[in-house]
Amino acid sequence: KLEMEGKTLELTRKHYGITSPISLAQPKEADLVLTQKLIETLRPFGVFEEELELQRRILVLGKLNTLVQVWIREISQAKNIPSSVIDNVCGKIFTFGSYRLGVHTKGADIDALCVAPRHLERSDFFSSFYEKLKEQEEVKDLRVGSFVPVIKLSFDGIEIDILFARLALQTIPENLDLRDDGLLKNLDIRCIRSLNGCRVTDEILHLVPNIENFRLTLRAIKLWAKRHNIYSNILGFLGGVSWAMLVARTCQLYPNAVASTLVHKFFLVFSKWEWPNPVLLKQPEDCNLNLPVWDPRVTPSDRYHLMPIITPAYPQQNSTYNVSTSTRAIMVEEFKRGLAITDEILLNKAEWSKLFEAPNFFQKYKHYIVLLASAQTEKQHLEWVGLVESKIRILVGNLEKNEFITLAHVNPQSFPGPKEESENTIWVIGVVFKKMEGPENLNVDLTFDIQSFTDTVYRQAITSKMFEADMKITAMHVKRKQLQQLLPKVAIQRSKRKASVHLLFLDDTKPDNVGNSSSNAVRKGAAPLKQPTSPVQHDSEKKPEVDSVQQNPHPSPCLSAGPASKSPASPLGNETSEKAKVEEVRQRSHVECFLKFYFQHCVNFVFYTLFNPVLHSVHD
């Protein structure tokens, strides 16, 4: 009896995480009722998948796993592996990400990892296995990732991304636990990176006290983050694994709480968290494999991370290194709002639906910067958009450093641009300028901020040999009321007072310098921008107050952050003649701008060829 009591006592003392829990309180009846209401509120958003669809995913993964087994045996025979070994050799498909965590939504893709024995090469995966997938009738849209070594495909209508890793094993056991740090010995860094997703996901599931409560809470938090435009690792917010670790830490601090309580505690904990103190799910371990890990005591650059959330699997990394001053401020503010709303919900003064109401991003700010990425073909456009999006956080960082800007908020959602002769995609960045004393206008120079961003994109495209002459970046400053003319109607809830303003991308040829943005130039003390002669129409037949930045190779454009200055009204001519004038301007400047652009790229190419080793290290 004493022995049993001792075991019971030991269980009650056990805790998850690096600290003791804040509360061990058991859920009350009201908490269970609120949790059920939360589930009912989540259902219409499609965060739960039907059982039939889940079974179809399991079936597809089973077929894919069988295909891997057949492929490995064929390659083993081709490499003259002994028959006795071939009979026992096998590989395996593992999953990670939202599917492995059990929080995937309807239509979501599956992140998978193909683990193979030591005699298979990475080149085999991207050659012979790729060809084998081609032969399958269920496989559609087969392709290799442009920037990440991954095979992407649609298998029987389910999107799957497959990474590859080979282990220093003769065969892959069916019960293999990828959390074993010993598996990392004698592996190249590419395989370690590929294994990291599965290892982190499995560790998270082993570090939460109640998996079902964790999953329901994570579904709610992920939906809330997406609805509030703060779900995107690549743009400087948090990605899926980071949100999962924050929810997991909340579960560790309140191990007996149900989802309704955990959602509230999530906002309570992280609205008051003293960043940049790191969020850790377990004490970091050193496996003596000499792999780089997040450690600000050793690595000086780690000291500058603003919102560190550390992965629990070795080698420990900061999953939020993209977070900037603006994105952290935006997320902390959203945490505080979430806390206020959940306070009301727990007091029965509001419903769960209020937490998931999407704020109108396009009414939130007075000033916006609109980025347009365009390419001639759909394939080029897909690659170009991926590159541009991966670098937008650089532009946000540049804007933050401007002394007259307090906040830059990029909307993670992109939109189709105006249909012309090329494929277009638009991103929108909300900008908050510092309030200046005095009534005079303040003209803020954004030339360097935006041009350095476009320079980086173009150079990266050239270095990776993906650049084509028709790939372009256009940027402009617009005010709130003008967004409705640039974006699809479904994206913007129009305000009661509507202004009909037609903004054109007048000159989308390349500028004088590499990547000089279509826009951007703004000089302190310069005269307010006058719009180029273009069709402009306003309700009162007068040109509206517009402070914008557009590409214009002749005058120096200005972005006004202070009171708007009225521009003279443009005479309205025949629509056909106006279009002809616009085309004439574009044709006239095309040859000159393209030659200058081409010459600058030649200079850059020679420069990078000579000094590439030094510059590459700086770029990294």
UniProtKB/TrEMBL annotation:
Family (UniProt): Belongs to the poly(A) polymerase family.
Name of the molecule in the record: Poly(A) polymerase
UniProt keyword Disulfide bond present: no
Start and end residues of each Poly(A) polymerase central domain: 213-357
Catalytic reaction list: RNA(n) + ATP = RNA(n)-3'-adenine ribonucleotide + diphosphate
Upper classification of the organism: Eukaryota, Metazoa, Chordata, Craniata, Vertebrata
Domain named Poly(A) polymerase RNA-binding: residues: 360-419
Cofactor(s) needed by this chain: Mn(2+); Mg(2+)
Domain Poly(A) polymerase nucleotidyltransferase: 17-208
Biased composition annotated in UniProt, kind: Low complexity: 560-571
A UniProt-annotated Pfam family: PAP_RNA-bind
Highest taxon of source: Eukaryota
GO molecular function terms noted in the UniProt entry: ATP binding; metal ion binding; poly(A) RNA polymerase activity; RNA binding
Function, in words: Polymerase that creates the 3'-poly(A) tail of mRNA's.
